[in-house]
Write a structure and sequence with these properties.
This protein is α/β, with parallel strands linked by helices. The chain has a single domain (11-221), classed as Aldolase class I (TIM Barrel), CATH 3.20.20. The protein contains 8 helices and 8 strands. The protein has helices at residues 24-31, 55-61, 78-88, 103-113, 158-168, 186-191, 201-204, 209-221; strands spanning 11-14, 37-43, 68-74, 92-96, 116-121, 139-143, 174-178, 196-199. Strands 1-8-7-6-5-4-3-2 form an 8-stranded parallel sheet. Helix 6 links the parallel strand 7 (174-178) and strand 8. Helix 2 (55-61) runs parallel beside helix 3 (78-88) and helix 3 runs parallel beside helix 4.
């Protein structure tokens, strides 16, 4: 099972939510050499108002990519389905604080499965609610839009929230952001402390996904 890249770098995590599923293998191949992480958004139509993919898609694409599969469970019953996604090829599982009754138990379950552990919060959830468990995860995912659909605009208050969250994290923990990530928004969110940038439409909505990845990376690292 692959591990998250060590901290100290800026990583772009293309989200296949915005990819053309009739050309999914081709789209992944186009960005494979330019990134280390592939982001897979899993939605159940209950926790968020949209349906996406299940373990079978993860299983089908796993043999064709060496990237770290960053599986974001935007679902109500994460403890039930997490093992299926790990079995299918997920390297890391990120679950939502709002969707589980016992986050410590969920973290232990993922550790026992051998997966990297991430925890996420929606824009309306106070960052402080992560304090009891934040030390026990490898990565925190801060949603910078309301989860459920791609192509939304970055929420400006996310900058303050990222700064607050960064102060809670150790140097060996990643801060991931998801939503409205474009070359125009990356400099500010990176200054606020994010080091892992999920982008969907900004990459797969472009004629050249590889060039789009480069543009986001260049923007994110311009002042570092």
């Amino acid at each position: 099972m692959r591990k998250l890249p060590s901290t100290g770098t800026i990583e772009i995590a293309p989200s296949i939510l915005s990819a053309d599923f009739s050309r999914l293998g081709e789209h992944i191949a186009q960005i494979e050499r330019h990134v280390k992480i592939l982001h897979l958004d899993i939605m159940d139509g209950h926790f968020v108002p949209n349906l996406t993919i299940g373990p079978v898609v993860v299983k089908r694409i796993r043999p064709h990519s060496q990237l770290f599969f960053d599986v974001h469970l935007m679902i109500d019953d994460a403890p039930k389905y997490a093992p299926e996604f790990v079995k299918a090829g997920a390297d890391g599982i990120t679950f939502h604080l709002e969707a589980v009754s016992d986050p410590r138990k969920m973290i232990k379950q993922l550790r026992d499965l051998g997966a990297s552990v991430g925890i996420s919060i929606k824009p309306g959830t106070p960052v402080s609610e992560l304090e009891p468990v934040v030390a026990d995860v490898d990565m925190v995912l801060l949603m910078t839009v309301e989860p459920g659909f791609g192509g939304q605009s970055f929420l400006p208050e996310s900058l303050r929230r990222a700064e607050e969250l960064r102060k809670m994290l150790r140097d060996d923990q990643r801060l991931e952001v998801d939503g409205g990530i474009y070359p125009s928004t990356t400099p500010a969110i990176v200054r606020a402390g994010a080091d892992t940038l999920v982008a969907g439409n900004a990459i797969f909505g472009r004629e050249s996904p590889a060039d789009a990845v480069k543009a986001i990376y260049e923007s994110a690292t311009a002042n570092t």
